[in-house]
Amino acid sequence: MPIDDSVARAHGELAGLTAGAGRKVRTRVKDQLIAATARAHGVPLYTLNEQDSEPLATLVDVRGV
After folding, report:
1. What span, in angstroms and rounded, lies between the C-alpha atoms of 22 and 61?
2. CA angle centred on 7, ends 60 and 26, rounded to 5°
3. Is the pLDDT of residue 27 over 90?
4. What is the rounded average pLDDT of the residues 2-24?
5. CA angle 58, 25, 37 (to 5 degrees)
6. Dihedral sign computed on CA atoms, order 29, 10, 38, 7
7. Crossing angle for the helix pair 5-20 and 29-41, nearest 10 degrees?
8. Which of 1, 15, 20, 31, CA to CA, is 20 to 30 A from 51?
9. What's the CA gap between 25 and 27, in Å, rounded?
10. Which are the contacts of 11, defined by CB distance < 8 A and separation ≥ 6?
11. Could you give the CA distance from residue 6 to residue 64 in angstroms, rounded to a whole number?
12. What is the pLDDT of residue 16?
């Protein structure tokens, strides 16, 4: 899936949540782009590390596997 305007906007929202949680945005860029793609397309984000994705759960449907 391409990184289009909707994914870029979602990434900005998620980066704000990450920074607000006191976590480093720069070290999580790849994970955030995946989460932003899920948000932009309205699909759940499946992850092995729910705890790391916890700050994003207000905007993304985070599900553990």
Report:
1. 21
2. 80
3. no
4. 94
5. 55
6. negative
7. 120
8. 1
9. 6
10. 3, 32, 33, 36
11. 24
12. 94
pTM of the model: 0.87
Strand partners, 62: 45
Q: How far apart are the first and last CA of the chain?
A: 22
What digits encode the pLDDT tens for the residues 42-65? 999 999 988 888 889 999 999 998
For 44, the token pair is: 């759940």
**Residue 26 · residue 33 · CB < 8 Å:** no
The Cα 50–Cα 62 span in angstroms is: 7
Q: What six digits make up the tokens of 12?
A: 């900005």
Q: What is the DSSP letter of 23?
A: -
23: amino acid identity, one letter: R
CB atoms closer than 10 angstroms to residue 64: 10
* Tokens 């759940």, located at residue: 44
